[in-house]
Amino acid sequence: MSEHEYVPKSKAAKWFNDRLPLLTLGAHLTDYPTPKNLNYWWTFGGILTFCLITQIVTGIVLAMHYVAHADLAFASVEHIMRDVNYGWLIRYIHSNGASMFFLAVYIHIFRSLFYGSYKSPREVIWIIGLMIYLLMMAAAFMGYVLPWGQMSFWGATVITNLFSAIPLVGDSITTWLWGAYSVDNPTLNRFFSLHYLIPFLILGLVVLHIWALHVPGNNNPVGIDIKKPSKDTVPFHPYITIKDAFALLVFMIIFAGFVFFTPNVLGHSDNYIPANPLVTPAHIVPEWYLLPFYAILRSVPDKLGGVILMFSAIFILFVLPWLDTSKVRSAVFRPIYRQFFWILVIDVLMLGYVGAMPAEGIYLVLARVGTIYYFLHFIVVMPVVGYLEKTDPIPMSISEPVLTGGAEPSLARKVNDKV
Amino acid sequence: MSKEEKKVNRRDFLFTASYTVGAVGVGAVIWPMIDQMNPDKAQQALATTEVDISSIEPGKSITVLWRGKPIFIKKRTSEEIAEARAVKLDDLPDPQKDEDRVKEGKDEWLVMLGVCTHLGCVPLKNKGDFNGWFCPCHGSHYDVSGRIRKGPAPTNMEIPKFEFVDSNTIKIG
Lengths: 419, 173
Known about the structure:
The complex is a heterodimer of chains A (419) and B (173).
Chain A: H1 11-19, H2 22-31, E1 33-35, H3 44-63, H4 73-82, H5 87-115, H6 123-145, H7 150-161, H8 170-178, H9 185-214, E2 233-235, H10 236-261, H11 291-299, H12 303-315, H13 320-323, H14 335-355, H15 361-388, H16 399-403, H17 409-418
Antiparallel strand pairs in A: 1-2
Helix pairs in contact in A: 3-5, 3-9, 3-10, 4-5, 5-6, 5-10, 6-7, 6-9, 11-12, 11-14, 11-15, 14-15
Chain B: H1 2-6, H2 10-35, H3 41-44, E1 49-52, E2 61-66, E3 69-75, H4 78-86, E4 109-113, E5 124-127, E6 131-135, E7 140-143, E8 148-150, E9 162-166, E10 169-172
């Protein structure tokens, strides 16, 4: 449990560990003191690691059968589905795996927002996490292009054309991205190359993400600093590993439900039509996990303005630790912020919904209202509420509310005050 | 000693020279890595295409592929030309006369890149509020001259470089 100096038991292990302290690292990871009050929202780190490994393994296998050529790509994907042994299973795991990956990452991000995990001293963990999120979006977008169906082609066209909004050099940049004068075979080829690269970049960032986490240690539902190791912590193994494993199992059941019962429900049927550069599908929609940003893009009646706002919606998250002025981390003790948090959740869900709808009438109005609130939340609500809000009393330690038997930590504090 | 420190010595010169040569070397290696992504010779070779337009009836249009992009070739009726020319320039987000979008003396022929200037979708013909084209992706309306009238697209649909080889053939590019 304690971070004592690790000494390998056998002589051979000691010999090796003196030369490369892998065993010390292993001991650190097993003994790593973890807050004992972590709830199930904290299991998504492990779930995300599982998602990444699943995508890498299934992706490597798919690449053995896929052909990255504009004339052959669509047929090769059908070949995987019909001819390759278990090809259908591997492809459905990979395509649904992307959705499950995003589902998990959104829960993970909102967990961080609720419990203030992005705040000092964990800003670097947060920023690395956002870099992972950006790379995930790039990987997912390029992966969606590879089957070379109608949605692949036109999704690629719309997204790469976002860069043409850049003044002066925009068109040169788009041509450079395409390697042609439109989305074409060179584009498909390079997207395949980059789609294979990005997961390994993510893997590297995940190592940094966990490394940065292990410096201050986990945040926790009450959001207070804890001494570690102490009676407030438990060793990572077996306490957290078993909890993570249980959550992962439940997650895998949902995952398998999609793969085996509704493998195409999250995709778009137009992507089973081969790419045709002469015909744009009537409704172009990105994958569900990009819809809120798509709604923000479409809410602006100006090309450059829409692109700037869409990218700002992501990049504003990078300065979040400095926009939040509250000293209290966890929203459990922040009665006002807590309500705004749920408004933000509803706002993002609503943006996702209108992003899938045609950009007209009531949907356009909702998209604009949603976009305005999204930015107000971060630029105005977070600094102002953090400054004005009267927070509930926070407990002295994790053990205190638990051991005195109070369900609400704040109640426990009052009990203690009487004593 | 302090006097000597201020003087530029042999070592300072070597540092600066090394960094400079290093930077030039890195740049010389990076540029080919970036430029290889630009359109290659095979792509550039597709730069021109000739189209037979003899079979197009007035009021009808055809779509041909040029450099992987659709080109709309429309033979406009005299009413359509009159409609395009009656529009006041003040009503246009990207003011351009219809006369400047066609070849002089060939006013019926509208040859343009069938690509929405917003995010690159292909607009649908005979749709939208202005009797021209409508882009289904994000709702841009173009008039009968291919000029943007309403919606997020910033500019009119582009007119590619083209010429009449003879009265029945045009060369695009």
